[in-house]
């Protein structure tokens, strides 16, 4: 049928951020990207505990299913709730019925002890058979020693590294810092300020809505020779919406381009999480062709199957109570916002 696709993949998500919506205004108005990190995200991630993380991940997984996304590549950063965090995320997504590949993003901004704990959480999760990667926040928040340690851990388990690269101007030396460490399994998120002639290996994860929201600019991913995949950077998991925005952003710099390149970036998610190809989404519109999807509002999933099991149908999930998840997430969001 022309209205059926495999499950979509969100190639860069932060499931810990789902409770951020409606959070109190920061102490100061952030005037640049570093200010946004300082005033918003680095205050929020430090306030999270494992209970908040559980319901944030369940809400994110629920909303993924509701948009036809059956697989998420997650990047976690909860510096005061590191131990066990990856299992909390994996278990939450499994309960809802969503595939997840997760990693803890190490950073020296909380001291080297935080790096050691983050590396150990990645090691524990991978050693226990978790579907994971090794996470690094970004080169600009890590020492060279930490970068090398994360790369070595990934090599030990034969997995990739999930890292933010050149998202803002403060990380422009990342290509030099990461030289010789990357390989084709690495996931390089954002890359807005990455030089076109860089020599980093791996898949570039394009997050157009987040980049616009943070005022860092357009990454223009078509200029790179690397494979490109699409993510959301924590702003939900609606990949049809991300595809549409990726298309019009590319169109803004090249009026001759059609939606096919952006659709190919969406399809590259299946190379990163091949299991999603075994999933099936029946959509409210046909044909599910990029030239139609790019210009047709309101397309939604009617039924979602993961490994043959119907996990979403008739407007609701089958494994979990969607309203309960939303109610519990609201309770945890209130706790989080009170801490802020």
Describe the protein's architecture and organization.
There is one protein chain. With 340 residues, this protein is an alpha/beta fold. The chain has a single domain, classed as TIM Barrel (Alpha-Beta Barrel). The chain has helices at residues 33-47, 50-65, 85-96, 112-127, 144-157, 174-177, 208-213, 239-253, 260-267, 269-272, 290-293, 322-339; strands spanning 4-5, 8-13, 69-74, 99-101, 105-106, 134-138, 161-165, 187-190, 203-206, 228-230, 280-283, 301-306, 309-313, 316-317. Strand 7, helix 6 and strand 8 (187-190) form a beta-alpha-beta unit.
Distance between the termini: 49 Å
The order of strands across the largest sheet is 5-6-7-8-9-10
Quick check: average pLDDT? Answer: 97
Number of helices: 12
Largest sheet composition? 6 strands, parallel
What is the count of structural domains? 1
- CA radius of gyration: 19 Å
CATH topology: TIM Barrel
The share of residues in extended strands comes to 15-25%
Helices and strands, in order, run as EEHHEHEEHEHEHEEHEHHHEHEEEH
Within CATH, the superfamily carries the name Metal-dependent hydrolases
* CATH architectural category: Alpha-Beta Barrel
Low-confidence stretches: none
Number of strands: 14
Inertia-based shape: globular
Helix content: 25-40%
- Class per helix and strand makeup: alpha/beta
């Amino acid at each position: 049928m022309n209205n059926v696709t495999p499950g979509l993949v969100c190639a860069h998500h932060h499931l810990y951020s789902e409770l951020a919506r409606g959070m109190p205004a920061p102490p100061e108005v952030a005037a640049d990207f570093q200010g946004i990190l300082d005033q918003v995200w680095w205050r929020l991630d430090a306030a999270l505990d494992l209970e908040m993380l559980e319901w944030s991940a369940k809400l994110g997984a629920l909303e993924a299913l509701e948009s036809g996304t059956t697989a998420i590549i997650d990047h976690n950063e909860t510096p005061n709730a590191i131990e066990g965090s990856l299992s909390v995320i994996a278990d939450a997504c499994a309960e809802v019925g969503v595939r997840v590949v997760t990693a803890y993003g190490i950073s020296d901004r909380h001291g080297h002890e935080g790096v050691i704990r983050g590396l150990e959480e990645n090691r524990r999760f991978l050693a226990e058979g978790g579907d994971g990667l090794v996470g690094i926040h970004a080169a600009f928040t890590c020492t060279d020693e930490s970068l090398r340690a994360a790369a070595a851990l990934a090599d030990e388990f034969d997995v990739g590294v999930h890292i933010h690269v050149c998202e803002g101007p403060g990380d422009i030396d990342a290509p030099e810092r990461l030289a010789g460490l990357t390989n084709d399994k690495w996931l390089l998120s954002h890359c807005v300020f990455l030089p076109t002639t860089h020599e980093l290996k791996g898949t570039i994860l394009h997050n157009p809505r987040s980049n616009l929201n943070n005022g860092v600019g357009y990454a223009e991913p078509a200029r790179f020779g690397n494979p490109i995949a699409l993510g959301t950077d924590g702003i939900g998991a609606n990949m049809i919406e991300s595809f549409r925005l990726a298309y019009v952003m590319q169109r803004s710099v090249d009026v001759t381009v059609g939606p096919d390149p952006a659709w190919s970036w969406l399809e590259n998610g299946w190379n990163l999480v091949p299991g999603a190809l075994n999933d099936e989404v029946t959509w409210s519109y046909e044909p599910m062709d990029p030239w139609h999807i790019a210009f047709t509002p309101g397309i939604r999933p009617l039924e979602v199957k993961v490994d043959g099991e119907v996990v979403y149908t008739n407007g609701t999930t089958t494994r979990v109570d969607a309203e309960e998840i939303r109610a519990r997430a609201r309770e945890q969001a209130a706790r989080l916002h009170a801490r802020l």
